[in-house]
Amino acid sequence: MFSDLVRPWAGNQKSGLSLLSGLFISGALATSTGAFAEWQDPLQTPAMSSDKAHESLLLDVTDRGQALVSVGAYGHAIVSTDNGFTWSQGSVPVTTTLTSVDFADEQNGWAVGHDGVILNTMDGGSNWTKQFDGFKANEAMLRSARNNLTNAEERLEAIQETGSDMDVEQAMTALENAEFAFQDAEYDLETGSTKPFLDVYFWSAREGIAVGAYGMAFQTMDGGNEWFEISSRLPNPNRLHLNAITRVGERSLTIVGEMGLMLRSDDMGETWVGQSAPYDGSLFGLLDEGDTQILFALRGHTYRSDDDGITWQVLDTGSEQTLLGGFSSDRGAMLVGNGGSVVTLNAQLSGAESTIIAGRKGAASVIRSEAGHFVIAGDAGIQLVSREGKLLQRQAEMSGEKGNE
After folding, report:
1. What is the bridge-based pairing of β-strands 374-378 and 67-72?
2. Is 338 among the domain residues?
């Protein structure tokens, strides 16, 4: 990974879809504390303190230097400074499910989730503020769709006068796609803040991209003060879900999504092109170590490329469980997924070994601690495992420090 330029401690990589099967739960479900509780808008309701936050559904875990941060259901955001053994809960202004978290440095981080929410912390995860949500996203998508429709109409009119039959046909197809996108944007605006972000990546304290369901993609160049729509830059006319975004070079990014969607940018998000994928099902994440990449997907499908994603070979992991998250470094890699599935790779990113974590709880994300063991976020909350995928004798607990009461 080439993010050493902006992250002094980097030298490893985390990737994956921070979303377990069936996690498109409603905001009401994520907010209600009882079957008959009065509904509260999750975007306007602060997350409650919980001494069980580390055991609740958690969907992503990342590092911020020597500390760890994990996010998940009910707006939970928890921080550990001792390799995942004890956790404190951050103060979060929403109760919507958080699906992904990323830090540009030890203090500045962003979390994204359901209802199109984007949160920011400037103190390492103790306190979070809302920068963006699905209502703002819908308005931006509609403005962009309207502009794209106007441009498509003008282009077709110009080509009909001077272009070839093929040019006219392509312009008509582009206009049709623009019309569908505009109709979808109008519908989304009427429906409300329903679409979730699924992943976020920042390569500096000012520059980052968030991607999500139905092709939603936004970028910021000023630390999140302004988020602007970039979905129209992506060759994704069917608005397929964008599951994960990964840095794959000094100035390159790759997005993976459903139906074998792979998109690549070699100018940090300015322009994008489609990339050939070895599998036409849902892709959940990509790990990058130099010229070697590991791609993981639905039903255990896993692939390896040794030429920066140009060609791919099947990587036999011995598991048919869907793999949802992964972590790699120069010491090797670990992939995690449904049913407690764990796949480990050696330093050459080969020699796959598969095991199942006791309890068979689904896992969404994994990272290696400074102490050498692995920290997994998933159905069981935080789980600490050895490199062999065995649960450590000592597991996570809350420190007693609270966020919102």
Report:
1. unpaired
2. yes
Q: What strand order describes the sheet that includes 363-368?
A: 363-368, 374-378, 381-385
pLDDT of residue 27: 38
Question: What whole-number distance in Å separates Cα of residue 385 and Cα of residue 387?
Answer: 7
In sequence order, the β-bridge partners of residue 391 are: 385
Indicate the pTM of the whole model.
Answer: 0.86
Q: Specify if 405 maps to a domain.
A: no
Percent of the chain clearing pLDDT 90 (strictly above):
70
CB 42 within 8 A of CB 94: yes
Q: Hey, what are 253's tokens?
A: 């990014």
Segment 346-351 long-range contacts (CB within 8 Å, at least 24 positions apart): 349/287, 349/289, 349/292, 349/294, 349/304, 350/304, 350/315
CATH number at residue 39: 2.130.10.10
* Closest alpha carbon to 257 in 244, 274, 266: 244
Name the token pair of 394: 């000592």
Rounded Cα distance, 110 and 91, in Å: 14
Contact (Cβ atoms closer than 8 angstroms) between residue 372 and residue 18: no
Tokens representing residue 267 in the block: 């100018």
Q: How far is CA 291 from CA 250, 304, 311, in A?
A: 12, 10, 11
User: Residue 353 belongs to what domain range?
Assistant: 3-126+196-398
Q: How confident is the model over 346-375, as pLDDT tens digits? A: 999 999 999 999 999 999 999 999 999 999
Would you tell me how many other CB atoms lie within 10 Å of the CB of residue 104? 21
Question: How far is the C-alpha of 381 from the C-alpha of 54, rounded, in Å?
Answer: 5
For residue 391, give the DSSP letter.
B
Distance CA 264, CA 247 (A): 10
